[in-house]
Amino acid sequence: MTSLTAVPAYAAPAPKAPLERTTIERRPVGEHDILIDIKFSGICHSDIHQAREGWGDAIFPMVPGHEIAGVVAEVGAGVTRYAVGDRVGVGCFVDSCRHCEYCEQGLEQYCVEGMVATYNGRDKNGDPTYGGYSTHLVVDEGYAVRIPDGLALDVAAPLLCAGITTYSPLRHWNAGPGKRVAVVGLGGLGHMAVKLAHAMGAEVTVLSQSLRKKDDGLRLGADRYYATADESTFTELRGQFDLIVSTVSAPLPIDAYLGLLKVDGAFVNVGAPEEPNSVNMFSLIQGRKTLAGSAIGGIPQTQEMLDFCAEHGIGAEIELIRADEINDAYERVVGSDVRYRFVIDTATI
Length: 349
Prior knowledge:
alpha/beta, Quinone Oxidoreductase, Chain A, domain 1, Rossmann fold, 2 domains, 7-stranded mixed sheet, 6-stranded parallel sheet, alcohol dehydrogenase (NADP(+)), alcohol dehydrogenase (NADP+) activity, ADH-like_C, oxidoreductase, ADH-like_N
């Protein structure tokens, strides 16, 4: 095993404080661990929610980042899945109980005992976890996935959250030929939902506040694009969709969106607003509709998603930044000024 290693990282020292360069300790490489030389780390809106305690109390100092792409630099003696030089990714969790009914099904994100978050969590020893805004990460081999050679690491990094977060509900609710899918919001999550639903063969409609990104939406694979600020949209599209995937992290008029579903249609939330939402039960009863949520995906499905993306030539649309641009990038994400995912070049940390 290696000795505990100090590695550079960017951390929020306190809630709402600007991120700053620091040094963190990574655990030694254990028997079943791999050491990842992180090459790229995506910036997810979740990072901002947590660094600013928008979702509740958090652990500081915090090193965000759960869209991690890199190369294996060292393996433990018992590692069988990976070798030095392999291209790998790590998403939103780095461990789970491994024995509950959901872990045994490859649904580790729903672990009964709670998955161990990649950052802003605590490992089984009670130590805080630190994420991908750093140069290296040690993780159990069972919680890393292989990035296919057909995917560049920079555009693959956001797939570890934005990609799987949208792929999982599209698969679960059977998006494909003959299905009409609407994507609410064309941001970091939404642009991936459009690409994936299109590749699955569904008819895809984007529902965005304005038509500002219409050309992008159509280029990414949308068949139609409507502005939700135009009230006529909710009249024109009433009863049309089998599945609506909402990727926005702000409260929505849920009843209006439920009105766009066919009988037995589903409205699935993958965006997580900081404020509660409300719904009129008659919006569900009249049409046997489903209001649901979905959280990322397990390790097997994340690997399936990466292989699907490689097969179809799908990567995230990214803006590559230096580490010293993270704080500016946070403000731009909050202002919806990114097309469509910031990715940190960790060599600049």
